[in-house]
């Protein structure tokens, strides 16, 4: 694929996205009296349609069209099942969304970690949650950046270097976050979400058509790759592997702060409903398209050395005209950038609100905001360096991200449903659970032959409950918090 | 059906995602096996969420 065509497409995408970001500037994020809630939450006034598209673009990264398609190529229909279990887990938004929204509005929370610190009456819980989120999400963002680097290098046949791709995506993420905080992130997310879904769906349908249509595609799969249509399939999705992958991802909507922070933002519960339903429709289509993409690659190119090559190979093949191939490539770039900028913005709000404000007593709103804006490029540079260095530890932490963050879930559920939960219990589950996950991934140890993804949540639950039962709960704070969540 | 029952339906669907493809449909190697099953689960999850959030 020609380098000029790739750069031309990236340039058009950049210009349109920057224009949208500038148009998104408003009083809430760029006015004189802008505060933390304005810059990071859009003053809790986001409408349902933009929230739905932005939630979709933030959730679905480059993993879908590259990783999930590759998983389908290597492991068959089990990849679809894995993604559907995650998809069903988003139903947790229907249960916890109104509760997050109500307590956020009543107590003025900006971050999910601030909410936990308040509920358990101890700032250390907020600090631990923020630090744990950084430990797992900065490497995750770095891997997204590296993904863009590999994609541009692969598509251009090496004419665009890996480093150039990483620099381009880092600068885009900083730009979209900086122009108008959450408003520019959400509006550019919306543009990117529309681009992702339209481009990938059209090209997937085109590829399926060029392979003889749906019935021909599935007939070929059934005759030449029958194992790919059942589980455990070719062997990748044994039951324990499936369980280890799906348990952490089922809780993604609660455990990942870049999406749980979105529950504070809708202007009303009606907007939250639009956000959830809009996301589910988008997510279902995008999931089916990504799986079809993997199956198409399996039929067209059954002997690839690595499953991660499924998407790049298909994009560069005669099944996809070069112009459409480059459009899908930009769609994948958009998917990565829209995830990275949201992670950066959320982590910077957590570091300023939960770490800085807990260390420096009486830090004013404007001071916190200033720190948040300073921290943002530092997080971006860290992610860039991690992507460039390709350290083994970073790869381990990024793979462990969903498992590592699931240890926050017991403290979140306990905040709303268990009056007896304590700050020490929450700290034990987040810090202890997080360390157990890191140890299991680094050592490769599988107790009882089960992967870390299965152990993380039970370990965190046991720590949270056991330690809470032997320590004193802040009953007054718990009653006030839970009553607010119930009333909503 | 009130929202609580729809929430229970979602939990049942999640459980079925493990039990049905690895049990009942384990030997069905065609589009109408696990592929169709998970597709239907996805559609039902959307319907359930529409019903659960009606009160929003």
Describe this entry's structure for a reader.
The complex is a heterodimer of chains A (488) and B (56). Chain A has a single domain (3-398), classed as Up-down Bundle (Sodium/glucose cotransporter). Chain A has helices at residues 3-23, 27-30, 36-41, 48-59, 63-75, 78-89, 92-107, 112-119, 123-155, 162-210, 214-224, 239-250, 252-255, 257-260, 269-300, 310-315, 322-359, 365-389, 392-399, 401-405, 409-417, 423-443, 452-469, 475-487. Chain A has 488 residues and is mainly alpha-helical. Chain A is globular and about 65 Å long. Helices cover 78% and strands 0% of the residues of chain A. The mean pLDDT of chain A is 90. Chain A starts with a helix and ends with a helix. By secondary structure, chain B is mostly helical. Chain B has one domain. Chain B is built from 2 helices and no strands. In chain B, helix 1 runs antiparallel to helix 2. Chain B is 70% helix and 0% strand. The chains are: A mainly alpha (488), B mainly alpha (56). The A-B interface holds A 77-78, 80-81, 84-85, 87-91, 94-95, 98, 218, 221-222, 226-227, 229-232, 239, 242-243, 246, 250, 269-270, 272-273, 276-277, 280-281, 284, 287-288 and B 7, 10, 13-14, 17-18, 21-22, 25-31, 33-35, 38-39, 41-43, 45-46, 48-50, 52-53, 56.
